[in-house]
Amino acid sequence: MAKAENLQMPQGEVKEMxxxxxxxxxxxxxxxxxxxxxxxxxxxxxxxGAYGVTRGLLQEFGDSRVRDTPISEAGMVGLxxxxxxxxxxxxxxxxxxxxxxxxxxxxxxxxxRYYYQTGGRISVPLVVRNKFGTRPxxxxxxxxxxxxxxxxxxxxxxxxxxxxxxxxGLLLSAIRDPNPVVCFESHHLYGVKGPVPEGxxxxxxxxxxxxxxxxxxxxxTCGGMVLKAxxxxxxxxxxxxDVEIIDLRSLAPLDKETILKSVAKTKRAMVVDEGSMVGGVxxxxxAVIQENLFSDLKGPVVRVGAQHIPPPHSPxxxxxILPSVDGIVGAALRLAEGKRK
Amino acid sequence: MAKAENLQMPQGEVKEMxxxxxxxxxxxxxxxxxxxxxxxxxxxxxxxGAYGVTRGLLQEFGDSRVRDTPISEAGMVGLxxxxxxxxxxxxxxxxxxxxxxxxxxxxxxxxxRYYYQTGGRISVPLVVRNKFGTRPxxxxxxxxxxxxxxxxxxxxxxxxxxxxxxxxGLLLSAIRDPNPVVCFESHHLYGVKGPVPEGxxxxxxxxxxxxxxxxxxxxxTCGGMVLKAxxxxxxxxxxxxDVEIIDLRSLAPLDKETILKSVAKTKRAMVVDEGSMVGGVxxxxxAVIQENLFSDLKGPVVRVGAQHIPPPHSPxxxxxILPSVDGIVGAALRLAEGKRK
Amino acid sequence: MLDTAxxxxxxxxxxxxxxxEEKLEELYQKRAMYGSTHSxxxxxxxxxxxxxxxxxxxxxxSYHRGTGHIIAKGADLYRLMCECMGRLxxxxxxxxxxxxxxxxxxxxxxxxxxxxxxxxFATGAALAAQIRGSKEVAVSFLGDGAMNQxxxxxxxxxxxxxxxxxxxxxENNLYAMTVSVEKSVAIKHVAERAKxxxxxxxxxxxxxxxxxxxxxxxxxxxxxxxxxxxxLECLTYRWDGHFGGDPGTAYRxxxxxxxxxxxxxxxxxxxxxxxxxxxxxxEFEKITAxxxxxxxxxxxxxxxxxxxxxxxxxxxxFAKSEVAHG
Amino acid sequence: MLDTAxxxxxxxxxxxxxxxEEKLEELYQKRAMYGSTHSxxxxxxxxxxxxxxxxxxxxxxSYHRGTGHIIAKGADLYRLMCECMGRLxxxxxxxxxxxxxxxxxxxxxxxxxxxxxxxxFATGAALAAQIRGSKEVAVSFLGDGAMNQxxxxxxxxxxxxxxxxxxxxxENNLYAMTVSVEKSVAIKHVAERAKxxxxxxxxxxxxxxxxxxxxxxxxxxxxxxxxxxxxLECLTYRWDGHFGGDPGTAYRxxxxxxxxxxxxxxxxxxxxxxxxxxxxxxEFEKITAxxxxxxxxxxxxxxxxxxxxxxxxxxxxFAKSEVAHG
Lengths: 341, 341, 326, 326
Ligand SMILES: Cc1ncc(C[n+]2csc(CCOP(=O)(O)OP(=O)(O)O)c2C)c(N)n1
Ligand SMILES: Cc1ncc(C[n+]2csc(CCOP(=O)(O)OP(=O)(O)O)c2C)c(N)n1
Ligand SMILES: [Mg+2]
Ligand SMILES: [Mg+2]
Hints:
Structural class of chain C: alpha/beta
Order of helices and strands of chain A: EEHEHEHEHEHEHEEEEHEEHEHEHH
Number of strands of chain C: 8
CATH architecture of chain C: 3-Layer(aba) Sandwich
Strand order of the largest sheet of chain A: 4-3-5-6-8-7-13
Bound molecules: thiamine diphosphate, magnesium ion
Order of helices and strands of chain C: HHEHHEHEHEEEHHEHEHHH
Helix content of chain C: 40-55%
CATH class of chain C: Alpha Beta
Number of domains of chain A: 2
Strand content of chain C: 5-15%
Number of strands of chain A: 15
Radius of gyration of chain C: 19 Å
CATH superfamily of the largest domain in chain A: Thiamin diphosphate (ThDP)-binding fold, Pyr/PP domains
CATH class of the largest domain in chain A: Alpha Beta
Oligomer: heterotetramer
Number of helices of chain A: 11
Distance between the termini of chain A: 38 Å
Largest interface: A-B, 51 and 51 residues
């Protein structure tokens, strides 16, 4: 595993843009560079994607390499696997992560296992992009967070960019990776701006970012929850708790080194995730931390995640099940008690 | 949550049978009692099921209630949901758990969320049985353990019987449950015999069994791994470590009470599962234990599970990735060191 | 031939569907409605023709563009409106929103936001009826886009082999979101596929409510008599964008939209009834006004109704005992 | 009309397929082979007819009953045998077993144990050829049972709308495990479904290797010329049970099995060649003996080859760099 890096200000030419645009940048850049890259998905061509990520690609690269598909999630992932086997570099857009269970078999049983089960004879360089995130009005089939479930399936790489720069850098790495990569893009972050380096900018898969340094307590998090952790950290600072934030950026491979290094220093850890707390990302990371740093820890690894309930439709219900800044602050204070006393 | 019970010798008339037969008993019993119960799946009628669980049901209940299906996993689960909504009690057999990703959408997005998303207006009393387990010759698409992934999806009950008595009792409870239940049946246990009560015998969903009492260390486990834990416990006893074994029986709802009560006593916990250690059952349970009993624990919660690799074909490779009795014993000894010193 | 009273009732219901969508759109613009709208305007003849031909005990499964189906089947407008607005009095207590509801009291098996997801439910409900020997038929509404989902294929094959009393009502409105049906299937009519499952597939004018009614009635009788499934491809068009906020013009020619508006199902039946001398313009205006007023009332009442508390209940996920069915 | 040399080559290959299955069955009985066998005996004309008509750069995707396809396409018998036996020299180093392999060096896209799972791979490989403008065609072998999998429907629809150079070779051997095709589909011929995807579906005698060859050649030429997909339903029969240990008689009449054995594809070509004067009985016996001897050799060598060590490598799951393709 490469060394963890701080969230550095990127070098060279930089442009301010939204995550949505940064992802598009990565697609454009790589499509121009590598004729094997093509994009398929529902409404990705003429319409430019349900969230505008693929906007303009049809015009720039033509309808052979930018293809609107029928509503056939399993089929399109399966086709992409076949095209990847036969030398292409497909990028599939699945409109939202709630639809991943429709192509779960193709992703987890086929793409993920192909390299292994062919004894390394065939690799499947495939990217499956999708949007995730719980918000009012989405409801049970349109606003899930299921990234945690994919962690359990060997053979997949999983990225979950937070900043626009990471969006570009990770997606570029994903397209170039010889293995299947699932890219979870947060609904909450698409519109958030940040500086993005121009040109050939990659961020390695499997390396977390230390988003904020602190000495009292580590918050390990990812996706839209990073912004809540930021807010919580400010509030906690005011109360005398100095928080370190780890933005995972990749869920598989998991950058245990960066996580453990941080917790070895702060001795207190919290994992915050938008997915359900049961059997998800928070569970895995809590298990890893306590397994490795049991005697260093000053308290249990605290999990803050969504309640184990389907994503609701109505705003107050959504608010009630999601982690909140207050919730994070409260849990952090309880955990840090030892220190503050 | 009901109180945990010891693995008691069942009351009344008892017959010795294999798990496979005990499951059949449950189906027969309930089909005779409740005309709403029917069975569908590939090869379940004429052939009696790939593992013989449904043998004889066609002859006894006729081809309207025991139906061979085409190879359409998602379709058959979807049909079963529709039939359940319209007042029936379907039991679907999915030939092996590797095929669950094909019907993942119907199970996790539809069946599991229906009661919630209809505001409690419609319940989906559905049972999805399947075989799981890693063994030589199965290979990457035929011998997975993915029960751990289902734990992350709210709205499902998940049972995983070990003894034949539990097989009958849990399956009967599952059929009568107004909610969707996924029943994971271990390949390794189908042929294992045990006493099974005759008649109306149920085991409550969500209640673990204390399979063996001990004071030094708790092993929490399920499915085929229970037998390895049994063996390990005997070996450990000889080395002076007195092991308590919790057989989960249900993964959702999880019987935290029984687990925590045991670990509060032994102060050392290990979780053993046949699924991958990453993001699975072992992670969730380790997270729960350390969260609740941090200051009682004498050491980290140790996870022993399969390596994070697809299930291989060749015997030595299979052996290499699965938890072994020696592995369990070794890990337990390391964990119990404090005690033995 | 349908009697006038029934046809006027259908006319009235079509207006109701339309008025409901218009109100919803207005609420959406005001951000009083959560999630997206999926306007049914232009397709009213399908829902109304089908549901008018069904018996109360018959069942329907719906999809994202579902408001029309369920109003036509007998949904309570207040509960529906509340659900759209995320209110506690909604069909799903605000948990599901308009894409996630279900209520067997008026034969509504449910809908979801997963395209094609409920097609097997109607099929399975028909299986239940067959096993039990009860005589209800089930209708599965689905869009043209849903025809390319695997589970829809699987479900229809089941209906074919087991001769299930189910009617697939495919509303071919020429687009799945922004992708035209011509780009999504290589044949002129998806009804052709029914042959591959061993049952009848018909292509009909989906803007002719009387025809839709008549074909549904035939299909339902066939289903009840053990004749199995029927596939009805109803050619129709959605006037509005795919969802609230989509003008629907980035991928459709203005002329195409205009041409279809000329084929308005409401106008068509209205003009026919007037030509026959069975309806006066004033009567039509009165019906229309009454319907719009009713919807207005409902919306007001819904807007004044309580939101759910900011609380979650883990118990809301599992039924404690069986919900009475049917 | 095919020349005699080519036909004799096809005859020889059919015998090789059969001999391989028989050896495998023997090893299975001796527990020297892991997992199950899925005997291809009786269906040899399909694999051999198809693969003989393909060019080396053309691609095939296979399924659980895949040994025949890949031998016909040019697999190395030793590597294949080793894989069945879980040996390190196997195609997949013993990781996959015979249901999980793939090797592009002889145009083998791969197979899996999930029925229908690889049908989209052939379709996607054809898409790659189309985007790139390379002229390979892809063949998707699939069983009759696979016709009812959702992803197969979705893949075929893609082939139709995008006119992909793919050939679906459906081996209708009348059963999916123990469930007859009559119970699984409501039509006489699944080839009918191709119409619903906008391409040609033909029903052919799958035991006539020359016919299979000729139809594949036509379909491949059409695909290369941009004419899109073809569906070939090859009527055939598996002589043995579904898997090793299944006598195959619990769900099939003995007479049916016997009748189909009479239609043996090997016997058929052999007798034709003899009748034409292009083959002598002794020559046939010699070919047969040579083939069986070859297989015997291979099995011996495989049995003497090393098993993988009892080790796992987490690195075996991810490619470090791209595997050279094509
Ligand atoms: C399985 C699935 N894929 C994609 C989507 C996103 N989506 C929502 S509606 C829609 C188009 C549906 O088209 P059609 O079935 O024709 O119904 P219509 O909207 O035209 O009524 C799409 C692609 C979804 N909800 N579900
Ligand atoms: C998706 C899936 N469902 C079920 C099975 C179990 N199974 C293995 S082979 C088979 C029958 C396949 O029939 P068919 O496609 O006709 O091929 P054949 O065996 O006749 O060659 C079944 C049901 C499976 N492997 N994959
Ligand atoms: Mg449409
Ligand atoms: Mg078959």
